Amino acid sequence: MKLINNVEVAINGIRANKLRSSLTMLGIIIGVAAVIVMISVGQGAGKKISDQISSMGSNLLMVFPGAGQGPVRGASGSVNTLTLEDAKAIGRQSMVSNAVPELSTSATVVCENQTWTSQANGTTPEMQSIKNWPISLGSFFTDDDVTSAGLVAVLGKTVADNLFPSGGNPVGQTIRINKLAFTVVGVLASKGAAMAGQDQDDVIYVPITTVQKRMMGINYVRVINVQTEKENSMAYVQSSIEDLLRERHRITGSKPDDFNVRNLTSVLEAAQAATGTMTLLLASVAAVSLLVGGIGIMNIMLVSVTERTREIGLRMAVGATEDNIRNQFLVEALVLCMAGGIAGILTGIAGAKIISKFAGWSTYITIYSIVISVGFSAAIGVFFGYYPAKKAASLDPIEALRFEK
């Protein structure tokens, strides 16, 4: 029999036993849907982490004070070894696009009758370029503002919304940060949550010299953000920074560094490896239901062989070969699995969207997850359908014709 005839026979067999076929396909439907949902959850988590790390800046190295301490960005800490001069020296290194110092402090912000507690980040104008953070209103402060320790501020979207709930234009307005009067020169576009879940828009950027001289009375910085010209130059720049800072800080011989340089590319690679492992684990657990569905396929095909023993004997008697019989039942098992696979794809896509909408989880459906699910369901159809098909093909025609149900 040709393939098209086998498919027609398989479809007719499925239609003749609709309820039984539907229940048999249910295991495949659940399995395929579960695999797609689990992979989409894992891929969504990986994509979210990648996007959040990328939002911190492209081709970015971060220099922290303290040997190997790796403090949280902007934390106060107790080691004070980095200065503005260090940042300027790093900025003069080859293959470095920008070297931006950063220093933060908690801030109580008042505007008329509105009060908000946020974080004031002292930095330089290049910070906007490093973070690729567009301005929605006004502009960022300038180098002249840094030189003069000017009382100017750029507000994150969350701060602006809370200080100006009526929706007026904050640019040009006066706000008080820790009792100092600042003029708002710009409002940043919304950026959303960071990796740890904190609101990136709940921030105020001011000149770093203003924070040092007028707000905290210090001369050091908490972190230096270094942007390299090319991604493949990050290792070279990191080594250059380490040599430069050891020389500037007069660290000789085997003495430990009083700073540490963190490569965000390594952080991203580690995060991607972790989410990849999680995705594989989730998909493996979900694939168990596909195996259960495959066992259901084999069971129903064995029942079908028993029910159709006389039909098989009759086909053999009129000239059907063992290959014809075997292929007929293999195609029937494959059609059951593929029909269940298609229904499972639709169910899985719908399930991923429902999870994303109501549970708030980030999901990301990829073509390869669908291809893997369908391919796996087809393989299960062939694997678990082979034994019943082989059993049907090996029946003795005479005994098959004598068979009574």
Summarize the entry for a quick read.
This protein has 405 residues and is α+β, with helices and mostly antiparallel strands.
Write the layout of secondary structure elements.
Layout: H1 3-16, H2 18-55, E1 60-65, H3 84-91, E2 96-111, E3 114-123, H4 126-131, E4 135-138, H5 143-147, E5 152-155, H6 157-163, E6 174-177, E7 180-188, E8 204-207, H7 208-216, E9 223-228, H8 234-248, E10 259-263, H9 264-307, H10 309-317, H11 322-359, H12 367-393, H13 397-402
Parallel strand pairs: 3-8, 5-7
Antiparallel strand pairs: 1-9, 1-10, 2-3, 2-6, 2-9, 4-7, 5-8, 6-7
Number of folding domains? 2
Low-confidence stretches: 69-77
Distance between the termini: 26 Å
- The backbone outline, from C-alpha atoms, is elongated
Number of separate helices: 13
Structural class: alpha+beta
N-to-C SSE string, H for helix and E for strand: HHEHEEHEHEHEEEHEHEHHHHH
**Amount of beta strand:** 15-25%
Overall pLDDT score: 82
Describe the sheet with the most strands: 6 strands, mixed, barrel
Helix content: 55-70%
Spatially, the strands of the biggest sheet line up as 2-3-8-5-7-6
Q: Radius of gyration in whole Å, from Cα?
A: 33 Å
Task: Tell me how many strands there are.
Answer: 10
